[in-house]
Every structure is written in structure tokens, then in C-alpha cells.
Amino acid sequence: MDFAPYIRDIEDFPKPGVVFKDITPLLKDPKAFQKAGEALLGLTANMKIDKVIGVDSRGFIFASMLAEKLGAGFITVRKSGKLPFHTISESYDLEYGTGTLEIHSDAIEKGDKVLIHDDVLATGGTAQAVCKLVEKLGGEVVQCNFLIELTFLNGADKINGYDKGVLLQY
């Protein structure tokens, strides 16, 4: 299925000069939503996965579906100050600023095989930060999985060395 018609460009969001890739048209179409989930799952074929991380916040949508289908645990990585238990953190750069991500300190056990899912790979700072969090806790990143990659921002360079799965590239 071609998912591109279900992605809407929003000019100057969240700040002037940024073209935001809006996935809500895909999410509201039941067939496209289901097929995208199946396609993302297909990117993980023959991988042993213990935990699936969803990155705050749009990454939660498909990551939870993937975890359920894979029989894996689901973990949220959130922006600073949003998790209620003990956390570890990692700062990162993104295409329109900087931020900090956090994960519960008990979310991953040593040796866990981890799939990281987010909706968009842009500059790669977010994905790189999540990979670092997984490794700080003793997990192994088996794949960084995305609905969309903005290739012109070269974000894949920051996660070079990790398996990458992507449905759409711009």
C-alpha cells in the first residue's frame, strides 16, 4: 500500500521554515492505519524482540501495536519530567531546538533485545538519544523503526551502526 497520500504537510509548524509531516490522516483511515501497522511489523521479520520503545508521543501509537503483535513489553520514552518513577536521561538536538528524553531506570533489563519506534526520523538526535538510553540500561537495540524518514536531514548518520526500518522516505 502506498502510504504517502495519507501524510499531510503542514508549513511553518512548529516554527517558521519547518514543514511538519502530519500522520493524522493515516491514523484516521482504518485500512491505512491497519496496513501501516502490518508493514512496520514486517520490517521486524525474524528478529527476537523483548521490548518495544515508543518515543514521545506519536511513537506510542504504533509501538504499542508492535509490542502486542510481537509478544513484547511496551516502554515509553518521554520528554523530561513526564515519567513518575526513577529515570535516566539523555539530551539531544532536533531540527528545531534541543530537548531531553527520559526512561524509567527499571524499564530494560541487561540483555533485552529492544525495538525503538518513532513516527519520523529527521535529524536523528532523538533516535540517537533513545539508543544511548537503551544501552545505558544494558539493552541491545535490534532496530530503529520509523514510519517516515526525512532523508535530506541525514538523520540516519546519527544511528549508523543500528539496523533501520522505514516505510516512507522524503
UniProtKB/TrEMBL annotation:
The keyword Glycosyltransferase applies. GO terms for cellular component: cytoplasm. The keyword Phosphoprotein does not apply. Pathway: Purine metabolism; AMP biosynthesis via salvage pathway; AMP from adenine: step 1/1. Its main location: cytoplasm. It is an enzyme of class 2 (transferase). Coiled coil: none annotated. GO terms for biological process: adenine salvage; AMP salvage; purine ribonucleoside salvage. Its EC number is 2.4.2.7. GO terms for molecular function: adenine binding; adenine phosphoribosyltransferase activity; AMP binding. It is found in: Cytoplasm. Keywords: Cytoplasm, Glycosyltransferase, Purine salvage, Transferase. It catalyses: AMP + diphosphate = 5-phospho-alpha-D-ribose 1-diphosphate + adenine. Residues 27-148 form the Phosphoribosyltransferase domain. Belongs to the purine/pyrimidine phosphoribosyltransferase family. Homodimer. Catalyzes a salvage reaction resulting in the formation of AMP, that is energically less costly than de novo synthesis. This is Adenine phosphoribosyltransferase.
